[in-house]
Design goal:
Family: Belongs to the HIBADH-related family.
Largest sheet: 6 strands, mixed
CATH superfamily of the largest domain: 2-enoyl-CoA Hydratase, Chain A, domain 1
Protein name: 3-hydroxyisobutyrate dehydrogenase
Number of strands: 18
Keywords: Branched-chain amino acid catabolism, NAD, Oxidoreductase
Organism: Sulfitobacter albidus
GO molecular function: (3S)-3-hydroxyacyl-CoA dehydrogenase (NAD+) activity; 3-hydroxyisobutyrate dehydrogenase activity; NAD binding; NADP binding
Shape: elongated
Strand content: 5-15%
Number of domains: 3
Bound molecules: nicotinamide-adenine-dinucleotide
Length: about 625
C-alpha cells in the first residue's frame, strides 16, 4: 500500500495520508501527489469537493519528512531543501485558494507540515484527540507552510505565544486560534465522510458539528497579551522574566527548548505580516526567506540532529543566551535572489528507467532543473538528485512523464509491458534508447491504446552530451506528444528534431548511424593506406578535412591519435562510443533495410566489418574508431 491513497469516491476527490507508522509525516512524493490531484480535480465537474483524511489514530500528519532534508543539507546540498519547501508552499497556497470546498479531518497530531496540508482548506474538522501545533522553532526553523498567516490572524498576541512555545492546541483551542472550524465527535467522522462522498454537499459538515467546551487558551489570553507585546524576542523574555506567575515560568521553560534565532525571526515575521496587506502569498514568501537559508545560516541542521538523528535533545543553538542581534534577524529575512513562485503548475514528476552511462546524467540534469525525478535501474545504479524507487512500476506511479534509456528493443518491450499498466492515462512515455523501429512502433501502439502519449527520441552526442545537456534528439510521435516532451529535450539537449510519426526518430537514428559506421571505416582505411604510401597523417588530415574527404568522422572525431581535435584515439581508443554499440546500430539498420527491401551494400559491409572486429578480434570495449589500428595491423590479408 502506498504512502498516500488518492481516488475519486462518489462526488468527492479523496486523499488519505497513509503512513500511520510515521505519524503520516509528509514526504516530497506525497506533497507532489496531492498537488497533482488538486490540479486534476479543479476543472473536473464530477468532483464537487475534496476530502482529506489520514490513516491511524495517532496523527493526521505530524509534519514534513525531514530526514532527507538533513542528509542533503549535511552534504552541502541546500538546493534540495529549497525545492522541497518551494513545492510544499505552492501546495499550501493551492489548498488555501482552492475553488472547491476542501474538508480535512484532523485527529491526533497535526503539526508543522501537517498544518500546511490540513489547516488551509475551507472546512477543518477537529475531534476529541486533536492536537495542533507549530513546533518549528524547536528544530531551528520558523512556523511555515502558511502557518504565520494563521498566527498573525490569531487573537491578540496568541500568534507569538503559539509560535514561540510550540504549545499544542486541543480542539477548542484550535478553533479559538483559527486553525480549525468545527468540532465533530470522531465516532461520527466515517458517517460524515460517507455523506460528503455521496452528496458532494459541504453543508453536511455544519450539520454534523457539535459544541465543544472552551479550551485553556481563551483564559490565558490576557496574560499572553501582557507578556508577548514586546517589539523583539528580548523584550518578550524580559516581560516574562519580570512576571511572577506559573504561566510565565511554564512559558519560559517551553521557550528555553527552542532556537533563539528562530524565535527572534518568528516575532519579527508576525510583526511584519500583521496589518492590512496580510495575505497567504506574503506569509509564504516571508517564511521561504527563512527556510531557504535555514540549513546554511540557521539552526535547522543542528535542530534535526538533536531531535531526530542523535536524539540527545541537547541542541547547540547559535545565540544560546537568547541575545539575538537585530542584524542576524534581518539577514535571515532579507529578500532572496530567487523568489518563491506560487503561480503555475508544479514541475513535472518524471519516472526514469535505465540509469546507465547515458540515463544517469540525463536524469541528473532533469532533477537539477527542478523536476521531481524518481529513478529505477535493475543494476541498482542511481542518479544525483533523483529519488530511487524499488521497482520500475513504483518509479512510474503518479508520473506525468516516464523516460526510458535501455540497452535494446526487447528490454524496452519488456519494461513497457511492465510499466504501461501503472502509468496514468494522459501521461507520456519518452523512449530515448536506440532500438529497432518495430519495437518503437509496437510500444507506441500499446501506449496509445491506454491513452498514454509516446515519443521515440533516440539521441546522439554520447556520454559527454548527456552530462553536458547538449544531446540531439531525433523524435517520432504526434505533434502533441512532441510538444509535451520538448521542454525536457531542452534541458537534456541542445536540439530536437521532430522527424514524423512514432518510429521516425529511430529511423532517423539508424540511418544516421549507418552513415557514421561507413564513414568511420572509410576514414580509417584511408589513413591506413596513407601510412603505407608514406604520407604524413597530419598532412592527410589537413587535406581531407578541408576537401571532399570531409566528414564528422574525419573532422570532429579523427581516428588518428594526435591529429585533429581531441578524440578517443588520443585516449588509447577508450570509448566514447563503443564498437559494440556501433555494431548494434548497424544491425538495426540492416534489419530495417531488409524489412522494407532497401539496398544498403555499404551498411551491410560496415556491419560485417564491425561484427568481425567485435566478435572475432579485440574490438569489444574499444572505441568504434579503433578500426584504424585494426586496418594498419592487418594489411590486405
Ligand atoms: P548502459 O548499458 O550504460 O545503460 C543501460 C542501463 O539500463 C543499465 O544501467 C542497465 O542496468 C539498465 N537496464 C537494463 N535492463 C533494465 C530493466 N529491465 N529495467 C531497468 N533498467 C534496466 O547503456 P548506455 O550507454 O547508457 O546506453 C543506453 C541507450 O542509449 C542504448 O540504447 C544506446 O544504444 C543508446 N546510446 C548510447 C550512446 C553512448 O554513447 N553510450 C550514445 C547514443 C545512444
Amino acid at each position: 500500500m502506498s504512502d498516500i491513497d488518492i481516488r475519486v469516491t462518489g462526488r468527492a476527490g479523496r486523499i488519505t495520508l497513509n503512513r500511520p507508522d510515521a505519524l503520516n509525516a509528509a514526504t516530497w512524493a506525497m506533497i507532489t501527489a496531492v498537488e497533482e490531484a488538486l490540479d486534476r480535480w479543479r476543472d473536473d465537474d464530477a468532483v464537487a469537493l475534496v476530502v482529506i483524511d489520514a490513516a491511524g489514530d495517532r496523527a493526521f500528519c505530524a509534519g514534513g519528512d525531514i530526514a532527507d532534508l538533513y542528509e542533503t543539507g549535511r552534504a552541502g546540498d541546500f538546493a534540495y531543501g529549497q525545492r522541497f519547501w518551494a513545492d510544499e508552499y505552492r501546495l499550501n497556497n493551492k489548498i488555501f485558494s482552492y475553488p472547491k470546498p476542501v474538508v480535512s479531518f484532523l485527529q491526533g497530531f497535526t503539526m508543522g507540515g501537517g498544518v500546511g496540508l490540513g489547516c488551509h482548506g475551507s472546512h477543518r474538522v477537529v475531534g476529541e484527540s486533536s492536537r495542533i501545533a507549530m513546533p518549528e522553532c524547536g528544530i531551528g526553523l520558523v512556523p511555515d507552510v502558511g502557518g504565520t498567516l494563521m498566527l498573525a490572524l490569531a487573537p491578540g498576541r496568541l500568534g507569538e505565544y503559539l509560535g514561540l512555545t510550540a504549545a499544542r492546541m486541543a480542539a477548542a483551542d484550535a478553533i479559538y486560534a483559527g486553525f480549525a472550524d468545527v468540532f465533530v465527535p470522531q465516532e461520527r467522522w466515517p458517517e460524515l465522510i460517507a455523506a460528503l462522498e455521496r452528496d458532494g454537499d459541504v453543508a453536511a459538515v455544519e450539520t454534523a458539528a457539535t459544541g465543544v467546551a472552551p479550551g485553556a487558551l481563551q483564559g490565558l489570553q490576557e496574560q499572553i497579551d501582557a507578556c508577548f507585546a514586546g517589539e523583539a524576542l528580548g523584550d518578550i523574555l524580559t516581560d516574562l522574566r519580570g512576571t511572577d506567575s506559573d504561566f510565565a515560568r511554564d512559558t519560559l521553560k517551553a521557550m528555553g527548548r527552542n532556537s533563539p534565532l528562530s524565535m527572534a525571526c518568528t516575532v519579527e515575521m508576525l510583526h511584519r505580516l500583521r496589518g492590512p496587506s496580510l495575505s497567504m502569498e506574503r506569509a509564504l514568501e516571508l517564511e521561504y526567506r527563512f527556510t531557504a537559508r535555514a540549513m546554511e545560516h540557521g539552526d535547522f541542521l543542528e535542530g534535526i540532529r538533536a531531535a531526530i538523528i542523535d536524539k540527545d535533545r541537547a541542541p547547540k543553538w547559535q545565540y544560546a543566551d537568547a541575545d539575538v542581534p537585530l542584524t542576524a534577524v534581518a539577514k535571515m529575512l532579507q529578500p532572496l535572489k530567487t523568489q518563491l513562485t506560487l503561480e503555475g503548475k508544479r514541475m513535472a514528476r518524471i519516472g526514469f528507467i535505465g540509469l546507465g552511462n547515458m540515463g544517469a546524467p540525463m536524469a541528473q540534469n532533469l532533477a537539477a532543473a527542478g523536476h521531481t525525478v524518481v529513478g529505477f535501474d535493475v543494476a541498482g545504479t542511481t542518479a544525483k538528485g533523483a529519488e530511487m524507487a524499488e521497482s520500475a512500476q513504483a518509479a512510474v506511479t503518479g508520473a506525468d512523464i516516464v523516460i526510458t534509456m535501455l540497452p535494446n528493443g526487447q528490454i524496452l518491450r519488456d519494461v513497457a509491458a511492465d510499466i504501461l499498466p501503472k502509468m496514468a492515462a494522459g501521461a507520456t512515455l519518452i523512449d530515448c534508447s536506440t532500438v529497432d523501429v518495430d519495437s518503437a512502433r509496437s510500444v507506441a501502439a500499446d501506449a496509445t491504446a491506454r491513452g498514454i502519449g509516446f515519443v521515440d527520441a533516440p539521441v546522439s552526442g554520447g556520454i559527454g552530451g548527456a552530462a553536458g545537456g547538449t544531446l540531439t534528439f531525433m523524435a517520432g510521435g504526434t505533434a502533441k506528444d512532441f510538444a509535451t516532451a520538448s521542454p525536457l529535450f531542452e534541458i537534456m539537449g541542445q536540439k530536437a528534431v521532430h522527424c514524423g510519426e512514432a518510429g521516425a526518430g529511430q529511423a532517423a537514428k539508424i540511418c544516421n548511424n549507418m552513415i557514421l559506421g561507413a564513414t568511420m571505416i572509410a576514414t580509417c582505411e584511408a589513413f591506413a593506406l596513407a601510412d603505407k604510401l608514406g604520407l604524413d597523417r597530419q598532412k592527410m588530415f589537413d587535406v581531407a578535412s578541408t576537401s571532399s574527404g570531409y566528414s564528422w568522422s574525419m573532422n570532429a572525431y579523427c581516428p588518428a591519435p594526435g591529429v585533429g581535435p581531441q578524440s578517443p584515439a588520443d585516449n588509447d581508443y577508450t570509448p566514447g562510443f563503443a564498437a559494440e554499440l556501433m555494431l548494434k546500430d548497424l544491425g538495426l539498420s540492416q534489419q530495417a533495410a531488409e524489412a522494407v527491401d532497401a539496398d544498403t551494400p555499404m551498411g551491410a559491409r560496415a556491419l560485417e566489418l564491425y561484427r568481425q572486429f567485435v566478435e572475432d578480434e579485440d574490438g569489444k570495449g574499444r572505441d568504434f574508431s579503433a578500426m584504424l589500428p585494426r586496418f594498419v595491423a592487418r594489411g590486405r590479408g
